[in-house]
Structure to design on (95 residues):
């Protein structure tokens, strides 16, 4: 089964990297959901929650971000954020 390759990066280093089934993020024009095969996009992020559903079926991961940008191309998702903190519902494997 196809999957997304996701990198979440903050100014102080990598937050999370791995395979995912779905990513959602607070894009400037509203929340955006990314699934396998999504068209290429570059979007500014507003403050809000970035959520990742890992490909292995593990617990969803979530981080609160203060802004940044998101890039999607060929099932590669890169999220670069200004600052990040772990959301209350994040599994212990998140930052």
């Amino acid at each position: 089964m196809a999957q997304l390759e996701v990198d979440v990066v903050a100014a102080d280093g990598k937050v999370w990297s791995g395979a995912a089934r779905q990513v959602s993020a607070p894009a400037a024009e509203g929340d955006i959901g990314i699934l396998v095969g999504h068209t290429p996009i570059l979007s500014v992020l507003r403050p809000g929650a970035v959520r990742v559903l890992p490909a292995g079926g593990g617990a969803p991961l979530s981080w609160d971000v203060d802004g940044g940008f998101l890039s999607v191309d060929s099932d590669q998702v890169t999220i670069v954020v200004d600052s990040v903190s772990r959301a209350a519902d994040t599994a212990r494997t998140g930052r």
Summary: The beta strands are 4-10, 13-27, 30-34, 41-45, 48-54, 61-65, 68-73, 76-81, 84-86.
